[in-house]
Every structure is written in structure tokens, then in C-alpha cells.
Write a structure and sequence with these properties.
The complex is a heterodimer of chains A (282) and B (304).
Chain A lengths: L10 H18 L1 H9 L4 H5 L12 H10 L3 H32 L5 H13 L3 H13 L6 H25 L3 H9 L4 H12 L1 H16 L3 H6 L8 H11 L4 H21 L1 H8 L6
Chain B lengths: L1 H13 L1 H31 L2 E2 L7 E2 L3 H9 L1 H17 L2 H12 L6 H9 L6 H11 L6 H8 L14 H26 L3 H9 L4 H12 L1 H17 L2 H6 L11 H10 L6 H32 L2
Antiparallel strand pairs in B: 1-2
Classes of the chains: A mainly alpha (282), B mainly alpha (304).
Chain lengths: 282, 304
């Protein structure tokens, strides 16, 4: 193990390490801690210049209550859910198919199609922006959740294919060959042999895509406007213009907007990390 | 009729292994072409036109590009900011490695520490941007509170054209470092303990050990860290949009933001010009994409 395990080092370094650890963490999360403190302060603290002292009264319930009951936040959150969940399902489903096709079969153009997906996943969004917006407007899907979902599914399929294909390649190929010898149809091999083995990959991709899509801002701005379809990342800016300079409410709003992926991460940590490393670093 | 279906099934059965992959690929390839591949080609096409997004496109040849490269100061600023982003963003890699080495221990509660260090990456860039713009606030911000505490002068990071871009990059480094950290933590898990022990017996330690024994084994992690950091740097948009909206005096624009501004903001709908900017950004990215694909291809040749 590198660096040298702490229990094999001198007593003084052990103590230093143990105190350094929480200190470093506080430093690291300082901007976030500041926002969390902002979000439970009363307005009067800001007008009196008490920015960094303790809150004079605890107003957490009030502030968060305002976010939930007196603003468009719940609608934006709901939009985000209705954009994120279908995208996750769609992109994961499509990439199961492509991953299987590209991971199991040898055919001309296999690698070419695979690289097309990989390269497409890396392009800057701006090269797609004008055309995708035009296409969405022409289909009558501008400012709808469906318009966003369709684009997200298509684009995320690139990344998901990279992930799924590599995962399927690492499965023992003998299983598929054995099934073929038995005369099992190819789609049944996919459904009954490969899919059950892909559960960890499915979970990893699902949490990862959930986070990506929930946090998307660019496409939300390009393809939607107003509380009818906008997800929370775009909604938070209108929320902030509603409460200009009311830092206690803006902070509470941001925390609410950031929470779902955070919750997802803490619940599915192992899968999440497996996904982030693209399965390449085991 | 019965004969026909039997014949059909027979033909499918005989060619099953050749046809199945194409059937499986069909929906995704269609989708991906419509939303990704064709739009790239269209953007190239649009970039040779003048177009407001609604009326007729007017062919202008390479006018847009000539204007970009010869007399557009905003483009120059954006381009050099992109270079700053690229170079400074790479700091996330050593910083992530450093934190990963710091946290690669087995003390009580270390798992929670690791997750909390990783935390910034899970938050949306919009919220990171907001959090940092409040952190930088000239009067209310925590940064100036700390500077005052140490007896230093206060600064207005996002209001000063010479500092604003660096302030935003610092905000971007926060989640990106977390990402690189997690890549390296996973990589460190896979480091061969026998090699480390053997090197230790040979008297290697500290920097030497890190450089000659550990880093070579972390190569896959480093590669992915490079890929995601470079892509992240060139994609920077959310932070700029949220923190400064390109200001002050346009000093924080990057190509992705400038493109958006030209084609979809109150400054007008100059889609042709915007597309030309997007093409330039795309070509820069293409250099890196080509390199990534080349390394992946090298790996593939070694595989089955």
C-alpha cells in the first residue's frame, strides 16, 4: 500500500494525520458550509452585516418553507424528475442493445461504429446547438420536456455505449458460446444470459446518467424557457431573480436544487464510482 | 403463406449471427445520427451562411471565418481564455492525486471522508457557480472575510477583468479535482502491493517510490483524468454563464459561451457566425478526440 499505512508510522505523525483530516475537510467544503449557514439565517442578519457570525435565530424551516411553498421551485424540481427519469431509462435501454451488438459480434464496421459513439460523446455541445434547436422547434417540441428528453437520450447513448460495450467485453465469452451450441436464439441469449450479468453496469450507468442529466444547464437553456418545462438548474436562475440579494432564500433554493443527485450518490456510492472510472480502472 | 413464413424464418435463422447486431444497433444509430452526427455536418454548412434562424440562409462563403480570424477582438479574448482554461484545469490532475494519496489510508471513518471530499463533483455546476460567486462577494463574501482576518486587502474577484477568469477556473477546479481524486483513489486500490513491498526493500521511498513504482501503475487512471479534464475545460459554459455572464467587459468569455451569445441571446440571432465559432471549437476538440481514439485503438489491437 502506498503511501505507508498510518499505523506503521510514528505516533506523532499519526496524531497529526488524525487532526489534519477533519481540518482539511472543513477547508475543502468551506464554500458549501458557508452556503448552508446562509440558508438558515434570518434576513435581518444580512441587513445588520452579520454575514459570518452565528445565525441570530434559526430560520431554517421558514426559509426552506418559502422555497417549497411560495416559489416555482417544486415545479422546476418536478420538471427535472420528468426529464431525468425517462432519459435514464431510454439511454440505458438503447445502450444495452448497442453494447451487446458491439461487444459480442465480430463484423465489418464494428470498431468504426463504436468510435462514432465515443467521438460523438466528446464533441462540444455548441456544434450541435443550432441544428438541434432548429430540429426541436420544427417538431413542435421546443419548450417541452419531451424535446429535452429525446435529445438527452440520443446524446447520452454515446457515453452509455462506451461503458456497456466495455463491460460486456469483459464478461466470459464462453457463456455465450455455450448458449449458442445449445441452439438458443440470439435475442434470448441477450435477454436471459447477458442482461442478468449486466446488473452492476446498469446500476452504475443509471446513477451516473441521473446525475449528468439532473445537472445539465446548457440544453435546458437552449431548448426550454419558463416554468412549464424548465428543469431546476435553469429554474434556479429565475428563482434568484425573484429573490434578488436575499441570500438566505437563494442559498436554501440552491441546496434544494443540488440535493437529489447528492442523495443518489450517497445511496449508490459504489455503483457511482464504478461508473465514473468508465470501468477502465478496476 | 405458411411456406413463405417458413422460408423467411429459415433465411433469418441461417443469417442470425450476421443480422442480429445490426437489428440491435438500428434504434441507437438512428437516434444518434439524427441528434449528433447530422447536426455536426449541418453546423459546418450553416457556418458558410448568414442566417437569423428563421428566414432564408444567405451564402457568404468563408466570410464568417475571415471575420473571426482577422477582426474580432471578442473571438481573440475567448480563444485565449480557452487556452487558460485548458492549461490551468490540468492542475486538477496533480491536485486530485495529492488528495488521493492523503486519503489512501485505513483509519476510522475514512470512507465517509472520501465521499465528502468527492461531494463537490455531484453538485451541478450551476450551484457550484452560485456558491463560489457568493464566496467571492466583495462585501458579504467569505473570501474577503478571511483576507481581512489575516490583515490583507479585500479583492473583488469577479468584478476585476484581470482576475475574473481565474476566479471562475478556481471554481471549476473544485469539482474537477474531486473527480480526479476519485479516479486515483480507485487506481491506488489496484496498485500491486508486492511491487510496493519489493521496492521498499530496495530502499525506494517517498518521491522516488511515487514516480518510479506507483505512477506507472496509475497510468489508466491518469489517462482518464486527462480525457475528462480536457473535455471539461473546453466545455466550460455553466460556470461562466452563472458567475459573470461573460463580464466584466467581456473578459471571461470562452468560445462555447461566445458562440451561445452570438446565436441565441439578446445580442441577436447570428446563427451563421455562431456556427463558425462552434466549428473552430469543434476542430480544437477534434485534435484531442483523435488522440483519445488513437490510444483506444492501440489498446483494442492488443485485445481479442
Amino acid at each position: 500500500m502506498f503511501p505507508t499505512p498510518i499505523e506503521k508510522t510514528s505516533r506523532s505523525w499519526q496524531l497529526t494525520y488524525q487532526t489534519l483530516l477533519p481540518l482539511a475537510l472543513i477547508m475543502w467544503l468551506l464554500p458549501l458550509i458557508a452556503v448552508a449557514i446562509f440558508s438558515i439565517k434570518p434576513l435581518s442578519d444580512f441587513s445588520q452585516g452579520n454575514y459570518w457570525g452565528l445565525p441570530s435565530t434559526f430560520e431554517g424551516f421558514n426559509n426552506y418553507g418559502k422555497v417549497f411553498f411560495e416559489s416555482n421551485m417544486p415545479r422546476y424540481m418536478w420538471n427535472s424528475v420528468m426529464i431525468t427519469v425517462p432519459t435514464v431509462i431510454g439511454a440505458v435501454a438503447l445502450s444495452c442493445l448497442t453494447g451487446f451488438a458491439l461487444g459480442v459480434y465480430k463484423f465489418k464496421g464494428n470498431l468504426l461504429i463504436f468510435f462514432m459513439f465515443v467521438a460523438g460523446n466528446f464533441v462540444p455541445f455548441q456544434i450541435l446547438m443550432v441544428s438541434v434547436r432548429d430540429l426541436t422547434v420544427n417538431m413542435g417540441l421546443y419548450d417541452t420536456k419531451l424535446g429535452l428528453v429525446l435529445f438527452h437520450i440520443a446524446f447520452q447513448t454515446g457515453f452509455c455505449t462506451l461503458f456497456m460495450r466495455n463491460f460486456i467485453r469483459a464478461l466470459p465469452f464462453e457463456l455465450i458460446e455455450a448458449a449458442r451450441v445449445e441452439g438458443v436464439a440470439e435475442w434470448r441469449i441477450f435477454w436471459f444470459v447477458v442482461i442478468p450479468l449486466m446488473k452492476p453496469a446498469l446500476a452504475a450507468l443509471a446513477v451516473l446518467i441521473f446525475t449528468f442529466i439532473w445537472n445539465d444547464y446548457f440544453w435546458a437553456v437552449v431548448l426550454t424557457q419558463g416554468p412549464g418545462a424548465q428543469p431546476v438548474t435553469a429554474g434556479i436562475t429565475s428563482f434568484n431573480s425573484q429573490y434578488v440579494a436575499q441570500y438566505h432564500l437563494m442559498s436554501a433554493g440552491s441546496i434544494v436544487a443540488a440535493l437529489p443527485p447528492v442523495a443518489m450518490f450517497f445511496m449508490m456510492q459504489k455503483h457511482f464510482i464504478a461508473g465514473l472510472t468508465l470501468g477502465a480502472v478496476k | 403463406m405458411a411456406h413463405a413464413t417458413a422460408h423467411k424464418r429459415g433465411w433469418y435463422k441461417r443469417n442470425e449471427i450476421a443480422i442480429t447486431p445490426w437489428l440491435f444497433l438500428l434504434p441507437a444509430v438512428l437516434f444518434f445520427s439524427v441528434y449528433v452526427i447530422i447536426p455536426i455536418a449541418q453546423s459546418f454548412w450553416i457556418s458558410f451562411h448568414e442566417w437569423d434562424g428563421l428566414g432564408e440562409k444567405v451564402w457568404v462563403g468563408t466570410d464568417n471565418y475571415e471575420r473571426l480570424l482577422t477582426n474580432d477582438r471578442k473571438f481573440g479574448v475567448s480563444f485565449w481564455n480557452n487556452i487558460r482554461w485548458l492549461v490551468l484545469y490540468l492542475l486538477a490532475i496533480p491536485a486530485g492525486l495529492f488528495i488521493a494519496l492523503f486519503l489512501n489510508q485505513t483509519v476510522r471513518g475514512i470512507r465517509l471522508y472520501k465521499s465528502l471530499f468527492f461531494f463537490p463533483f455531484v453538485i451541478s455546476q450551476v450551484v457550484v457557480g452560485l456558491v463560489f460567486s457568493w464566496f467571492y462577494l466583495p462585501r458579504e463574501g467569505l473570501l474577503n472575510a478571511i483576507l481581512t482576518f489575516f490583515g490583507l486587502d479585500t479583492i473583488n474577484v469577479l468584478g476585476d477583468p484581470s482576475m475574473a477568469t481565474y476566479g471562475i477556473i478556481a471554481a471549476g477546479l473544485w469539482p474537477q479535482t474531486a473527480y480526479c481524486m476519485i479516479l486515483y483513489l480507485t487506481g491506488l486500490n489496484a496498485v500491486d502491493p508486492e511491487q510496493v513491498e519489493a521496492a521498499r526493500l530496495d530502499g525506494a521511498k517517498g518521491w522516488k517510490m511515487l514516480w518510479y513504482v506507483i505512477l506507472p501503475q496509475l497510468r489508466p487512471a491518469t489517462f482518464i483524468a486527462f480525457v475528462v479534464t480536457i473535455i471539461g475545460a473546453l466545455r466550460s459554459f455553466d460556470l461562466i454563464s452563472v458567475m459573470t455572464n461573460g463580464g466584466p467587459f467581456g473578459s471571461t468569455r470562452v468560445l462555447s459561451f461566445y458562440m451561445f451569445e452570438e446565436s441565441l441571446s439578446e445580442f441577436g440571432f447570428r446563427m451563421g457566425y455562431g456556427a463558425a465559432i462552434a466549428v473552430v471549437l469543434f476542430l480544437i476538440m477534434l485534435l484531442f478526440i483523435a488522440y483519445f481514439l488513437y490510444s483506444m485503438w492501440q489498446d483494442e489491437k492488443g485485445g481479442r
